[in-house]
Target: Pentatricopeptide repeat-containing protein, putative
Amino acid sequence: MDVPALTSASTITQLPQRFNSKPTPTLTPAPPNLPPPSHLIQHPRTNLKHQCNRSIDLTIAWTSSISRHCCNGQLPEAASLFTQMRLAAVEPNHITFATLISFCADFPFQGKSIGPSIHAYVRKLGLDTCNVMVGTALVDMYAKCGKVQLARLIFDDLKVKNSVSWNTMIDGYMRNGETGSAMELFDEMPEKDAISWTVFIDGFIKKGHFEQALEWFREMQVSKVEPDYVTIIAVLSACANLGALGLGLWIHRYVLEKEFRNNVRIGNSLIDMYSRCGCIELARQVFHKMLKRTLVSWNSIIVGFAANGFAEEALEYFGLMQKEGFKPDGVSFTGALTACSHAGMVDEGLKCFDIMKRHFTFNTVNPKELARSLCNCYAPSELS
Model:
């Protein structure tokens, strides 16, 4: 990256009414479809230590199964499995609760109904105030569900807070548009790290307040807090939106001196920034210097060429990405079709569209963007 010289039944409501009141089955099963490890088989002379280990192993097994459902976006199924875990007299631990609560935060629509029930059990155990991992997960969940005042109550009740707790609460305020409250809490922080500053920078960017984001970055520099790669990506986004090429060049030089100089996501952000600032040649240099490229890398350079009027180059790289084994997605095709529309290349546009129809399916494609790009291919030729 050279710089130039300028350089439902599945809800928690099915759980027992009291957390400590549990059935006493004759056999404690493992989660469904999860065969018990051989070391869990009871031996006639099993001592207390082995029983404790068995209990821990079962908790881990159930928690892993719950986590797997959560990772697949199956939150109701995970909640149902948690119910089965309790009915099987297997004690959940703080990781079990943190896992469920975290995914309630990631899926707020479902989390609004499931999360409070989990919170009720957590509160009975006192984990909402005594365990920083669980408490912080609750803060995050309620903030993402739009209940930032409840999140603050939980935050204030935490007996021990770490930097993650503080940053999560600040992020909750920024996410809900309460910038003033976020700043007040920021001032109260015992120690401010790169994440603390980045929460503000990213929060301003998401609201479209790019100049404020850069102001916070400058304050971060004055405070002598080293930015991390997430900070760099956020600042490059602000530079791209404002066309702030000077700061973008400074960031690029800074990146070259740091350990994340080969970070793929930073490389992608640099390509996007240079392209949107009209410096497509610098974007090309960054692209070719990257040790590793992803689909986003290819899409960024293709869209960059198209947006800057380099239609032939956009189509050339569109072909190269496929030769390199990358399967185009909606962004790739939109970039290629945009290039065709800008140059009035109707035949090439139709070829791209035909490839799209015959060989590819999309889950995230924007049909309106593709249709607009295709229709625009005809406009120049019809007017000529």
